[in-house]
Write a structure and sequence with these properties.
Immunoglobulin-like; six-stranded mixed sheet; alpha/beta; 26 strands; globular; binds alpha-D-glucopyranose; Rossmann fold; single chain
């Protein structure tokens, strides 16, 4: 038998062995679940569907429940959230082991961008367009959190968001479903590792299902009203990507969708998620969202709320107590079939078995491992790397950056220069027994980077908000003594995040006035803008010499900022979300429809879709970000100009580093379907490649365009392609299109 045939045969055998192994594993778990359920009372089954907050910290309106331990011992609680650390989780697990069937508790926490080692906020990480780095960030977060006794993270948040007034825009991956889907999958894989039950992994939870980021007016928790076509085309894809990546759980959302609260929405949870997508994990409500359906007005009381949620496919009730207080009666009164309870409990127990918690309920409670992983030097090193890759260079007049050692006196000014915990952003984790000493402030990071001959001066200048300008004189005096000024301004970290919607997204207080004052010294000013959302900063954009959008970069913020300021890392990040020129321009995003009277920025504004008092373009567009070097795009070649349905074509392009620094470029591919039964956006991101080039180096890269990239949801929600002409655009951003060509789908 020849070698090739043997190798192929062995490969086939190993693949079939692997899949039968997985099938057997699934079968054995199902058998274990079935056997356990035969022993459970209805009360104990309902207990598994009930999740309480631990009293360590609350991430929602808290209900103090004095008898949690008694309820756990009676088997009335299946999970706790906001409980971390091997000591505390082991303590609660010991209580659970006193219950009749010794069913272990699940411990959940919002490990959104790190546990102890804090990574950049997710929207900042999304600027890296680097799936490996994003996956590694989640991997490290999972390693540390699982070492801290946690089984389950309520992340990734995959809500598409196009309104920066919404504070939770900081938690996702921006405005685009293609980029958002890749990032959703990368984060799920990072958190969950290769297979469930690995001791250094977490169950992930894609949230908030669904369309929570489209809240009217960007007001958190507000209603969402959209066509099912838009829902399928823009807001569902990242959830589908998470499900395809094997996400263990889904969290539903606070908002109503077209008048039906997501928590009680059968279309979302049963028809789409558990039906069409065949999702096998379980659905948890958001904090109290079962009971909040009473406020929505879709149910009259907690009894009806429990009925609506469990019927719609919500398996676990976080903190509302509606399930605990009403499901028994609903079953006894034949309003809820026992089969629905069994289905929910089966989904939850399956995960507990997969995690190995029945074999060893204390598997994740190893204090030695906790100490080792929370002090692993590889983790901050990785955080520093991705933080530098999350910083967006928005402006660099006269190539002021990178700084070199010729600057002998640097003035570092602003209310965020010496801030420590601010750098963690929202949705950081307060780890039991860990202080903030490991966080590198911006001041500390710069001080460490400077050589002995450089003098670093400091002045606060002003507060983040308020109108007090008393500190201006001192700041001006400090700036006057310097060769260059670095000004660090922005929001407070609690100005974005949950329940942090803002009607005014300008940089708060008198911080831009401080910039104006500093510019009177004639010194060049580099501005660092810190925040969790796209902010409006007209004066800074027009007058600063250089601008770095530093978001909230986490525990290595100071080091990462220093790395970029001095060119140890040449910034490569690109915006995953459009920056409006004013709050009046919202919503603004790149993949808009052309309309019958397309907006033009020319003087004759008559009869076109634009504001008469504002440019039609955002301040900074989706996909925008500068580098210390420059790149030329040339030689776009298409393998063919005509393809039949189902065929694909290859587009190749050459990128050259035409500057003097090594750098990375995110080359973006956009398509425009010229004519469709549903109008198509002026362009849509369909692929990208991040490449590294030395000065003078060229690389030719290629993209394959097939059915998936040409398809869209038609009026009947069918995922189709339609014959016709397409524009193919290669750009350095959604507005900076460098090369264009056309092809026809026959
Ligand atoms: C919050 C958030 C959700 C979070 C949950 C638990 O209200 O909406 O994202 O996971 O409660 O903290």
């Amino acid at each position: 038998m020849n070698i090739r045939f043997t190798i192929i045969l062995l490969l086939i055998l190993s693949v079939s062995f692997q899949s039968s192994l997985a099938q057997n594993k699934r079968k054995s778990v199902d058998q274990k679940v079935d056997s356990l359920m035969l022993l459970m009372t209805l009360e104990e089954k309902i207990g598994q569907m009930n999740q309480y907050n631990d009293d360590q910290s609350a991430t929602g309106p808290e209900t103090i429940d004095p008898d949690k331990a008694g309820q756990i011992i009676r088997g009335e609680v299946g999970s706790l959230l906001n409980c971390n650390g091997t000591v505390r989780t082991a303590g609660w697990q010991k209580v659970a082991m006193q219950s009749r069937l010794k069913i272990p508790l699940l411990f959940g926490q919002d490990v959104v961008h790190g546990y102890k080692t804090t990574f950049p906020i997710p929207l900042a990480e999304a600027c890296s367009w680097d799936m490996e780095a994003i996956e590694l960030s989640a991997r490290i977060a999972a390693t540390e959190a699982s070492a801290g006794g946690i089984h389950w993270t309520f992340a990734p948040m995959v809500d598409i968001a196009r309104d920066p007034r919404w504070g939770r825009v900081m938690e996702g991956a921006g405005e685009d479903p293609y980029l958002g889907s890749l990032i959703a999958a990368a984060r799920v894989k990072g958190f969950q590792g290769d297979q469930p039950g690995e001791v250094n992994s977490l169950m992930a939870c894609a949230k908030h299902f669904a369309a929570y980021g489209a809240a009217i007016g960007g007001r958190d928790y507000n209603s969402v009203d959209m066509s099912n076509r838009l829902l399928w085309e823009v807001y569902l894809p990242p959830f589908k990507a998470a499900v395809d990546a094997g996400v263990a759980t889904i969290m539903n959302s606070f908002n109503d969708l077209n008048g039906i609260p997501a928590t009680g929405n059968q279309y979302l949870q049963r028809e789409i998620l558990k039906g069409k997508w065949n999702f096998s994990g379980f659905v948890v409500s958001d904090w109290g969202s079962v009971g909040e359906m009473i406020n929505h007005g879709s149910v009259a009381d907690e009894y009806e709320a429990a009925l609506s949620a469990v019927t719609a496919g919500c398996d676990m009730d976080m903190e509302s107590r509606c399930y605990k207080n009403n499901l028994l009666r609903l079953v006894k009164e034949n309003k809820v079939p026992l089969a629905l309870i069994d289905e929910a409990v089966r989904r939850i127990l399956r995960k507990k078995f997969e995690l190995g918690l029945f074999d060893d309920p204390f598997k994740y409670c190893n204090p030695e491992r906790e100490q080792k992983e929370l002090n692993n030097p590889a983790h901050p090193a990785a955080a520093r790397k991705i933080a530098a890759r999350s910083i967006v260079l928005l402006k660099n007049q006269d190539h002021l950056l990178p700084l070199d050692n010729s600057y002998k006196t640097i003035a570092f000014i602003g209310p965020l220069v010496k801030a420590v915990k601010q750098n963690k952003g929202f949705w950081d984790v307060e780890v039991q027994g860990v202080d903030s000493g490991f966080i590198v402030s911006q001041w500390e990071g710069l001080k460490r980077r400077l050589d002995a001959g450089t003098n670093l001066l400091y002045a606060k200048g002003c507060n983040i908000d308020g109108n007090n300008k008393d500190g201006f004189d001192e700041a001006i005096a400090v700036a006057a003594k310097s060769d260059v000024v670095i000004l660090s301004i922005g929001e407070r970290r609690d100005m974005s995040g949950e329940a942090k919607s803002r009607s005014n997204i300008c940089i708060p207080g008198v911080q831009e006035d401080l910039l104006k004052a500093l510019l009177t010294t004639g010194k060049p000013v580099i501005v660092l803008i810190n925040g969790g959302r796209p902010m409006v900063f007209d004066y800074t954009a027009e007058h600063a010499n250089a601008i770095l959008y530093t978001w909230w970069l986490g525990s290595e913020a100071g080091n990462a900022i220093a790395d970029v300021l001095f060119g140890d890392y040449n910034p490569s990040a690109k915006l995953p979300i459009s920056f409006p020129r004013s709050v009046g321009q919202i919503p603004i995003y790149y993949s808009y429809f052309n309309t019958g009277r397309p907006a033009t920025d020319d003087s004759n504004r008559f009869y076109n879709s634009s504001y008469n008092d504002l440019s039609i373009y955002p301040r900074y567009e989706f996909g925008f970000g500068l580098s210390y070097t420059s790149f030329a795009y040339s030689n776009l070649q298409l393998s063919t100009k005509k393809i039949k349905a189902g065929e694909s074509l290859t587009a190749s392009v050459t990128i050259t580093n035409t500057g003097k620094y090594e750098g990375e470029e995110i080359v973006q591919l956009y398509l425009k379907d010229k004519v469709g039964s549903i109008v198509r956006p002026v362009k849509e991101l369909k692929d990208f490649k991040k490449i590294s080039l030395k000065p003078g180096e060229s690389k030719t890269i290629s993209f394959i365009i097939g059915k998936e990239k040409l398809s869209f949801f038609n009026q009947n929600l069918e995922w189709v392609t339609e014959p016709g002409e397409f524009s193919l655009m290669i750009g350095a951003s959604s507005a900076d299109i460098r090369l264009e060509d056309r092809f026809e789908l026959l």
